[in-house]
Fold this sequence. Notes:
It is built from five helices and no strands. It is mostly helical. Helix 1 packs antiparallel against helix 4 (about 50-65). The longest helix has 15 residues, at about 50-65. The chain is elongated and about 45 Å long. The mean pLDDT is about 80.
Amino acid sequence: MPKYYEDKEDDGRACAGVREDFKACLLQHDCVLKEGKKPSECLKEGHCKGLQVSFFECKRSMLDARSRFRGRKGY
């Protein structure tokens, strides 16, 4: 599922890879495409939960002082 370097835009922001994959997962999910719901509604139903947790962990690791030694989580 992760795109890594395939047709990837150059985004210098933190957690850009996880953000891009999370966004793609939501927009390509059947909940959005077939049922016509908003991505925020699909999140509340629990779709793309793994990427949501990864994105949260990556953003949280930016605030964690220990990340100076361990590096940010995510890709």
